[in-house]
Automatic annotation (TrEMBL):
<feature type="transmembrane region" description="Helical">
    <location>
        <begin position="122"/>
        <end position="139"/>
    </location>
</feature>
<feature type="transmembrane region" description="Helical">
    <location>
        <begin position="55"/>
        <end position="75"/>
    </location>
</feature>
<feature type="transmembrane region" description="Helical">
    <location>
        <begin position="275"/>
        <end position="294"/>
    </location>
</feature>
<keyword id="KW-1003">Cell membrane</keyword>
<feature type="transmembrane region" description="Helical">
    <location>
        <begin position="87"/>
        <end position="110"/>
    </location>
</feature>
<keyword id="KW-0472">Membrane</keyword>
<feature type="transmembrane region" description="Helical">
    <location>
        <begin position="12"/>
        <end position="34"/>
    </location>
</feature>
<keyword id="KW-0813">Transport</keyword>
<keyword id="KW-0997">Cell inner membrane</keyword>
<feature type="transmembrane region" description="Helical">
    <location>
        <begin position="314"/>
        <end position="336"/>
    </location>
</feature>
<keyword id="KW-1133">Transmembrane helix</keyword>
<dbReference type="InterPro" id="IPR007272">
    <property type="entry name" value="Sulf_transp_TsuA/YedE"/>
</dbReference>
<dbReference type="Pfam" id="PF04143">
    <property type="entry name" value="Sulf_transp"/>
</dbReference>
<protein>
    <submittedName>
        <fullName>YeeE/YedE family protein</fullName>
    </submittedName>
</protein>
<feature type="transmembrane region" description="Helical">
    <location>
        <begin position="174"/>
        <end position="195"/>
    </location>
</feature>
<feature type="transmembrane region" description="Helical">
    <location>
        <begin position="342"/>
        <end position="361"/>
    </location>
</feature>
<feature type="transmembrane region" description="Helical">
    <location>
        <begin position="207"/>
        <end position="224"/>
    </location>
</feature>
């Protein structure tokens, strides 16, 4: 059994690894302009699927990678943050739609906010703070009560984790590892093939976006679920996932962690405060994007130009904070990390996010046409 100093050392290694992987993620996204909201906007406004194919490739890689890790026994898929027995379909739909509208108004999701912040965008700093406060209120404050008494009351409970792989195993009687890998290949390979089949898609930039982002998600699952896993913690004598806020295996997500970052900064001297994988990820993404922006000469200070621009970002940030917590994740948390688990709640949240984003983009286009 490891001693407490051994556990502390391993937790620090997990945090440093999460920071490093997130910095790589930040640099890749800044270089390639990978963006879920941008992918939807390109399709709606121009019919251009390039960034949507980047996202599909990243998702395909993440799904196949997680399935391989689970099938090989390197991680326990049932211990994932997204592998709960409840399919929170209404929370995911409503929260996802709010988040989708919000990210259009705020010029990007939580991860994109960190990318822009690292590159000198002060509007992103405002979005960061407001989104974090709205998320905190929806986790523990006034909107948490509203969420708990409404959409969170509607769900479907299964006997095991509500993921495609686990449900297929239960329905067909297949061994869980085989079912997880089979489901991952069945979903991940078509997504990857569709992405790569796009005319002119195979370029260094697009491959870096899809393979790089997807690869980082897989690496985060390995870091949290394998490196940071203790079969028996010396204090509790129970299995534990080190440096995670939830106590379960985690990957990248950027709604709750923004709130936890504010909390960690404000109450740093509190002995009960512990740096978490999510907070390390928030810092890593901003630093990675900032370093890439500085090295490539793209760092620029930018602020609000009009009162309407400020208002849109404030409303958008609030909707993202409320919606992201309600949907149990954002475009990265549910759209990549959760979908890589083939979670039913994650698929539902992605549908809600896409619907909300399309509605907001259509509204903006209607306003522009009306003004013209």
């Amino acid at each position: 059994m490891p001693t407490q100093p051994d556990v502390d050392s391993l937790a620090r290694a997990v945090l440093l690894g999460a920071f490093a992987l997130s910095a790589v993620f930040g640099a890749i996204v800044h270089r390639t302009n990978f963006c879920t909201m941008g992918a939807i906007a390109d399709m709606v406004t121009m019919g251009n699927a390039t960034r949507l194919r980047q996202w599909a490739l990243a998702v395909g890689v993440a799904i196949i990678g997680f399935g391989a890790l689970a099938a090989g026994g390197w991680v326990q898929a049932a211990d994932s943050l997204y592998a709960t027995p409840r399919w929170m379909w209404l929370s995911a739909l409503v929260g996802g739609a709010l988040f989708g509208v919000g990210m259009v108004l705020a010029s990007g999701c939580g991860s994109k906010t960190l990318i822009r912040l690292g590159a000198g965008n002060l509007k992103a700093l405002v979005v960061f703070v407001v989104m974090a406060l709205a998320a905190y209120a929806t986790m523990r404050g006034i909107t948490a009560v509203l969420r708990d008494r409404t959409v969170d009351q509607v769900f479907v409970t299964f006997n095991g984790p509500a993921t495609v792989g686990h449900l297929a195993s239960a329905a067909a009687g297949w061994p869980v590892p085989a079912a997880l890998l089979g489901a991952a290949l069945l979903v991940g390979l078509p997504l990857t093939a569709w992405a790569l089949a796009g005319r002119g898609f195979i370029t260094g930039n697009n491959l870096l976006a899809g393979l790089g982002v997807g690869g980082v998600i897989v690496a985060m699952w390995w870091l949290s679920g394998h490196v940071g896993h203790l079969a028996e913690h010396p204090e509790t004598l129970e299995a534990a996932y080190l440096a995670t806020r939830s106590g379960r295996m985690e990957a990248m997500t950027f709604t709750g962690p923004l709130a936890h970052t504010i909390d960690w900064v404000m109450f740093f001297s509190d002995s009960n405060q512990r740096l978490s994988l999510g907070v390390a990820s928030v810092a890593g993404v901003a630093v990675g994007a900032g370093l890439h922006a500085l090295l490539t000469g793209q760092f620029r200070w930018e602020g609000f130009r009009t009162t309407e621009d400020l208002a849109n970002h404030l409303i958008g940030a609030t909707l993202m904070g409320v919606g992201g917590v309600t949907a149990l994740g954002c475009t990265i948390g549910q759209g990549l990390s959760g979908v890589s688990n083939l979670s039913l709640t994650s698929f539902t949240a992605v549908a809600g996010i896409a619907a909300g984003a399309v509605a907001a983009l259509k509204y903006q286009m209607w306003r522009l046409e009306r003004a013209a």
